[in-house]
UniProtKB/TrEMBL annotation:
InterPro entries: dTDP_Gluc_deHydtase, NAD(P)-bd_dom, NAD(P)-bd_dom_sf. GO terms for molecular function: dTDP-glucose 4,6-dehydratase activity. Residues 402-433 are annotated as: Disordered. Residues 54-366 form the NAD(P)-binding domain. It holds the Pfam family GDP_Man_Dehyd. Keywords: Lyase, NAD. Signal peptide: none annotated. Its cofactor is NAD(+). One of its GO terms (biological process) is nucleotide-sugar metabolic process. It comes from the Eukaryota. This is dTDP-D-glucose 4,6-dehydratase.
Length: 433
């Protein structure tokens, strides 16, 4: 077993642990022993120049799938170091099943702290970095946008500078489809060459981070790859995002609350397929390239509710508007801005041999089953995060008190904004005339 929780004695983590708040991450109640150990399905010939891989954000959702996948699929080829600050959304349960593996190490550290990052890179002789660590929840970025810039932009900068310092051979930067901004229903799927036009502080911080990655590639020949993925879902996701949050609410026999009218769509990729995509990019991706990871499953938030209600056998055939549906689905005001949809073209990655293998129906079944069994125990008390717009303050999550109604609320998307603006301009014009 190689579990390092390395940190200097006077680090913030330790002082927090001393006052009892962060100690909880290290308490092991054994729940992970009951859970299946999920990984992806791909396996490649190991790369001769890759030996020690640091995965930032490894105790978070998507990265923990890759940590498990690489540790268990390449036990003799790669050593995996999961580097994580253990933020509010992390859980060591996500990787505890690996603690007895010789090629796995957990290292607690903060990507915004240069000495902690360099210490990890040097200590484990890291040659390859997968950079996932981020503030990842759009809703929170409207209220705490400085935190997003600090972690996602400055933290990425620290990693890049540290990677340059130690001569990293591959730096795979995880970005998001949200950097492209909203895609209209009638528009084509976006290629990797499309312009970036983020519309919320989270997406903007991810786009800004990409600019730094690009600059380190050009200025310092840092060997980088950028990955922009659709929404990922599956077991192990902290219940702040729509699928795990709604599943946990329904498990509690509580209604779910949609933002606006529930019409925005997202494309969903099962986490096992995402792990395969990252594995494929590691082994077959070309340095200097950008890869979209695209799913075929585009689903509106309201239709997601129907699928969940049916999957959870709460409503046999849930149709929006029916009494049964209205019992379980409520509404609150929309986000300050809500992209109607994202749509990336994933052909470039599929040309490397990656494919989406898990249907949404299968993925949702696996996910619902997992949250039924573990959702209430995996992260400790999740009650506060289940409110429509929770607020995170440091490591604490607080419930909001947003008004909830039975009726869809006005949506805030680009077209609505434009038509509202035109109306205002027209009425101003009339007033001035
Ligand atoms: N979830 C999605 O659907 C999705 C889609 C596309 C791209 N992404 C990107 O994938 C990455 C992972 O997303 P996720 O949903 O798994 O996130 P997550 O919120 O579940 O996990 C983030 C992890 O990063 C860690 N972290 C945060 N700040 C840190 C810091 N300063 N130092 C070290 N660790 C820190 C947290 O403790 C947590 O374990 C992010 O970069 C996100 O932008 C996510």
């Amino acid at each position: 077993m190689t579990v390092a929780t390395a940190q200097p004695a006077n680090s913030p983590q330790n002082s927090l642990a001393a006052n009892g708040r962060r100690q909880s991450f290290f308490e092991d109640f054994g729940i992970w022993k009951e859970a299946p150990v999920f990984i992806g399905t791909t396996k490649f010939e190991p790369l001769p120049d890759v030996k020690n891989i640091m995965i930032t954000g490894g105790a978070g959702f998507i990265a923990c799938w890759l940590v498990r996948h690489l540790t268990l699929t390449y036990p003799h080829a790669y050593n995996i170091v999961s580097f994580d600050k253990l933020d509010y959304c992390a859980s060591l349960n996500n990787t505890r099943a690996l603690n007895d593996k010789r090629n796995f190490t957990f290292h607690q550290g903060d990507i915004t702290n240069p000495s902690e990052v360099v210490d990890c890179l040097e200590r484990y002789n890291i040659d390859t970095v997968f950079h996932f660590a981020a503030q990842s929840h759009v809703d929170l970025s409207f209220g705490n946008s400085y935190g997003f810039t600090h972690t996602n932009v400055y933290g990425t900068h620290v990693l890049l500078e540290s990677a340059k310092k130690v001569g990293i051979k591959r730096f795979i930067h995880i970005s998001t489809d949200e950097v492209y901004g909203e895609v209209k229903d009638e528009d084509d799927d976006l290629l990797e060459t499309s312009i970036l036009a983020p519309t919320n502080p989270y997406a903007a911080s991810k786009a800004a981070a990409e600019m730094l990655v690009h600059s380190y590639q050009k200025s310092f020949k840092l060997p980088v790859i950028i990955v922009r993925s659709n929404n990922v879902y599956g077991p192990h996701q902290y219940p702040e995002k729509i699928i795990p949050k709604f599943t946990c609410l329904l498990n509690r026999n509580q209604p779910v609350v949609l933002h606006g009218d529930g019409s925005p769509t997202r494309r969903y990729l099962f986490a096992g397929d995402a792990a395969d995509a990252f594995d494929t990019i590691l082994h077959r991706g070309q340095l200097g390239q950008i890869y979209n990871v695209g799913s075929y499953d585009e689903i509106s938030n309201i239709s997601l509710c129907s699928k969940l209600l049916t999957e959870m056998a709460l409503v046999p055939a849930a149709v929006p508007g029916d009494d049964d549906f209205r019992k379980w689905v409520k509404y609150t005001h929309d986000r300050p801005f809500n992209d109607h949809r994202y749509a990336v073209d994933g052909t470039k990655l599929r040309n490397l041999g990656w494919e989406q293998k898990t249907s949404f129906a299968d993925g949702l079944r696996i996910t619902v089953e997992w949250y039924r069994r573990f959702g209430e125990r995996w992260w400790g008390d999740i009650s506060k995060v289940l409110s429509p717009f929770p607020v995170v303050d440091g490591y604490e999550v607080h419930s909001d008190k947003e008004p909830i109604t039975d009726l869809p609320q006005p949506t805030v998307d680009a077209e609505v904004q434009v038509s509202k603006k035109r109306k205002v301009e027209a009425s101003n014009g009339q007033a001035h005339a």
